[in-house]
Each structure stands twice: as C-alpha cells, then as structure tokens.
C-alpha cells in the first residue's frame, strides 16, 4: 500500500558521495588554499583574450559549483586554463574581425557564447559516448602544441610588461617591433615585471610553502598602495565590479555563426584533451579512476555555468588540483568553499584588486608559459620515437607560425597524418613451421622456422582499406614473385585484419586472378565475421573459392597436406 505521500529519489553528487564529517576540516583548508592560488590566475588569464579581470573571477565561481554538483571526480578542480585562454583569444579575434566596433561588453558576450558552445559540445559528445575524443590529440602533439602556445603567451606579455604597444604577430616580428620602439619602454613597469618574475622563479626553485603567484599579488598590491603605481604611469587592473555575476543568456547580434561554431569546436578539443590529461595525471596519484565520458558531463556543466554567468570556457586546472591534493582535500566541498571564498573576495576586496599592477600579472603569465614548455618531454619523445617528435614539432610550429586557431587545425591535421601513416603501411610477415611444434611462426623472428614447400603463408597486420590497397597489392605481387618454384598455395593469415572495405575486396579479387595465371591459388584463413560478410557481398568468396576459405590457419595447412 502507498502511504499517500510522494517520494522522490535524491542522488548525492558523485563528488560529495560518501561524505564523512572527518573530512570537513581538510576540505575547508583545501578550499581556502585553492581560492588563494586561483585568484592570481583568475585575474591574470582574462588579459590573454582581452577580457576584463572580473570574468576570470566569474569563471572561478559558477563553474566550480557546477562541476561539484555534476562532475564525477572528488579531487579535480576546474577553472581558467592558459591553453584554453589562448585558443579563446584567437577565436575572439576571428569572430570579431568581421564585426565592426566590438567593445569590451561585446567581447564578454561572445566569450560567454563560446563557453555555452563548448558546454553543449561536451554534452553532445557525452550523449554519443565520444569520450574517446580525449585521446584524439596524442600526448606528443599536445606537448608540441602547448609549447607553441607558450611562446604565443610570452610574446603577448611584451606590451603588458614594457608599456609599449606591439601589434605585430608571430615570434620574431614582435621582438623586432619592440627594438624599434625601445625609446618608448616604460622602465619602471619593466623593472617591476622582472622583479616579480625573479620572485616567482626563486619561489619555484626553493619550493617555498606559499605559492609564487600569491606572493606576487600580495606584494604588488602593497607596493602599489605605498608608492602609488597608478600615478607613476604603471598600468593597473582598474575598477572591478563589486556585484556578483547575474544569470543571463548572452546575446550579440550579427555574429558569424560558422566561425563561432568552429571556434567552440577548437576550444572544446583543446580544453577537453588537456583537461583529461590533467584528470588522468592526478587520478593516478589519488587512485581515482577517470572515465572520459563521465568527465564530459562535468566539463559540460562547468562551461554552461560559465556561459550563463558571463564568463569564458574553462577546463581542469592542474595548479588548483595540485594544491587541493597537497592540502588534503577529500571531496568537491573544496570547490564549493573555494567558490564562496572568491565570492567574498569579489564583494569585499575590490579596492585591493583594483590596484594590482599589470606588469605583475604579465610576470605571472610569462612564468606560467615557461612552465608549459616541457623540454624534458620533447627529449623523451625524441628518444622513444623520432617520427612522433617530428609531428610534435609540426604541432609546435602551428601556433607560432600560423596563429593559435590555425595551430589547432595544424595539430588536428598532424594527428590525422600520423594515424594515416600508421594505417597506410601495415606490416606483413611470411610464416613457417618448426619441427615437432604446432602452429606457424614468423620466419624472420624464428631462425628454426622453415617455410612449408609449396605452401606459402603471409600474415597481414592491419585492416585492408581504400587508402592502403595499392600498397598491399604491391606487397602481395612482390611476395608472389619471390616465391620458390613449385609453390601452389598462397594463404593470407587474416587474423589481424579487423576490417576490409569494398576497395580492398576488389583488390583481393584482382590479385587472386593474377596468382591463378601463375598456377598459384589464393587462400584466406581466420577471417573476421565482418570482413567475411564484406567479401561475400562483393563476390570475392566465389572468385577465391569456398574451398580456399578456412576458419583457422591450421585447417588450411591440413587441407593442403591432404590434397598434396
């Protein structure tokens, strides 16, 4: 019987599931630490994309709460990310290029729309179980791409730390432009930036317990208040709205939707790929299993929240997640505490944030960019695979030589080229038997193996598809030409052939006819069901002959021996 009362099942968010009161003190401490570390980047990173600093604070509040409620990880912290911001900057430049007179408010609206686009793409990818996209950009290509982005960020700080407006693009032209305008350098700004940069390096080398960006922000605020940097010509952050972000749907008429959609896709691919790498790296440390498909829900919720509260696209933050684990955070309550702390900062510390000098923020961004240049990883890639190192260099050159947005296209193209190269030239090997042993062995790897007289076996290690059929046909003809006199059967071991398409099927039919003219019969062994169905529909089974199709290679050998 029903009690007459409706009941609704409530499911605890995964990041808060199994919460224990003993975790509270650690989560509170971790939340305060995450907010302290996140504040400098929250104020500094928007400058990469030409956005006002408050958008970075908004991006560090609403997305944190959204991921805490919908994300699967207990430890991962989301927020502004340097690589994502650089791709966002390039997308904003592409979108606004065709829209005249775009002001700061319009740029914020466009960034929020891009965040909504990224969030929707995350949810669509989750709906179609496309978490595999996390591995689309390989680690070598991402390593090279991030190095290229790092150089772009470094170049972007020239104006901020010198006070000289540099409009040139690329790697060398901005430096040449700076040399031409050397007489316009504002030396107090440059000296301040160099001092703050040196402080960051000292803190990093000495492993000082207080994070370098936190020290830089606190020290630069004190110096700005004492010496009046604004009056001395050193640029400062300026007024930051004291109110909280409002829930609103961003609107901006006249946007090129195609560029907006492509930009959202580029940001999604880079931010999601980098975010999953961060999630897996820290998941390995904490023993937490990372499910890329479930992370799509968390990242999607975080980006939708960012778009609805006037922020920009976000991703997993390695620095904030590292602090969370170091302090001992146990759940997503850490994210909620950090968000509330930043809310309080926005409400009550606006005057202090206003006088932060921009050269100090430029130093933070420059140090962040240098930390992204992983020379050790490049050396390891070279040692493991020189070919992958070449593709990493291509991905690195893209953002530097052609711009960040085009660099994403270059990285994707390099990935596709790398994959196609692997698939276009599948390996093959001739097989033989070893006396008093069952089965077949590769002749080049087993010196005691011998080819069976009259019976040649070729193992093809890869799918047969339209882009490698010419190569496979050439290899089979070369193998047939080199067979000893008296060879009557050439059997293809298809156990490693996962797929065969119509082009490959036609090629097998042509090779079968050519071999028949040499009085050699072509056989196929260990075909996968899908590949066999394709060959039947294409009529290749009839050409080869049903008696030359074998379930396993041993059956082919026994049939040959029986007929001989």
UniProtKB/TrEMBL annotation:
Residue ranges of the TM segments: 54-70, 82-102, 108-128, 140-158, 184-202, 214-235, 255-275, 296-316, 336-353, 360-382, 394-420
Domain STAS: 445-560
PROSITE patterns according to UniProt: STAS
This protein's record includes keyword Iron-sulfur: no
UniProt cross-references to CDD domains, sorted A to Z: STAS_SulP_like_sulfate_transporter
Keywords: Membrane, Transmembrane, Transmembrane helix
Entry protein name: SulP family sulfate permease
